Structures are given as structure tokens and as C-alpha cells.
């Protein structure tokens, strides 16, 4: 069995007495792309925020590379959750420079990540002038600065046109070859099925499916079947 970089066991999160993440058990293999799927409000973003330390879990366990997760593991995790955290009045390079100072990283890392996301030639153009696709790629560059082993992307194609989506898809597909494992959360199933190795489907805070993405498999059909089965169980 392939080595896991991330595993959660019976992960739970309550907000005001309501269980929004209910016994989620993820298994993410190293150097793979894991698709975390579910309708809006299913608990995907909450789960990812717990993994990235943005929220505290109510109960359950998280393991990173086989040991109990601690905040120290965040040095090996990069994340783009919701909107890219950009300073609109700064250039791409300046946005990254701010982070390298905070993280104590060398300036050469700026050129490395700009090359990875194809933003090296943006010059003095300010981030507020960027297209949505450029902003998303700069957000990914920020997430890559610390050379993470695990990269978490939550709805990275939101607001992108077809060309931006295609460019981002190719970028994400390249990461496992560079030793970067990706967790990709998205509701655009046609995009997910082209790049993921495994999928997990969450509905109403419950993991209702987890397994390998088979070549030629119709993800939309699988998603619909699982969702229907879950609704019948609820009824």
C-alpha cells in the first residue's frame, strides 16, 4: 500500500451545536492528486481549514506523514482557500517578497515559484490589474513559497474562463512529479475527473464515498448515484 501523507480519523467539527463535519476519514497518498467533492455547504472547506490549522477540530485525529499532526507540520503545507490573499497595490514579485520576509526564505525562491506558475514576466503590473486566472496563479505561488509537501487548493478555478481553467489544470497536474501532493476541492466535476487520482465525496458533513478514480469513469454519474443513495438513507 502506498504511503499516506495525510490521514484523518473520525474528524468532527461542531458550530453552535450543529455537526458540520461528521466523522470524516480521509486517506491521501503521497505524490497524488486527491479530489475532495461535495455540494455547496457540504463541509469541504471546513475540513480543509481544520487540516491547515485555520479552525480547531471538535474531535477526531489528524496524521501527517504517519505522526500526529501538530502546528509545526504547517511548514510543509501550502494552501489556497477561497480567495488568493493578495496586496492589490503590489506587483507579483512584491507580494511574494512580503511573504519571504515573514517566512525567512531567500529571494531566489521568488523566481522559482514565479517560473512554476508562469508569472515571471509580469514586471511592474499591480495585482489589482491581474486577470482572475493570474490572481489565482499568484495565490498558488504564495502557497508554494515554503516548498510544501502538501498543497491544498479550495475551488481554485472559481471565476476563471476556459483558457484560465486549462492553464491551471496543467499546472496542478505537474505538481506530483515535483514531489507535491495536492488536495483539490471543487464542484466542477468535468475538470476534476481529468486530473485526480482519488476522490472523496462529502455530503452534509459525512464522507459518503472514497476511492480511486478509474480511467474513463464518468465522475458526474458516480457523484449523482452516491448523492441519490445518501438522500434515500436520510429519508
UniProtKB/TrEMBL annotation:
Keyword line: ATP-binding, Nucleotide-binding, Transport
Stored Pfam families: ABC_tran
Family, as annotated: Belongs to the ABC transporter superfamily.
UniProt keyword Transport present: yes
Entries under SUPFAM superfamilies matching the protein: P-loop containing nucleoside triphosphate hydrolases
An annotated Gene Ontology molecular function: ATP binding
Domain of life: Bacteria
InterPro entries: AAA+_ATPase, ABC_Gallidermin_ATP-bd, ABC_transporter-like_ATP-bd, P-loop_NTPase
Species the sequence originates in: Clostridium fermenticellae
Name of the protein: Lantibiotic protection ABC transporter ATP-binding subunit
Occurrences of domain ABC transporter (ranges): 6-229
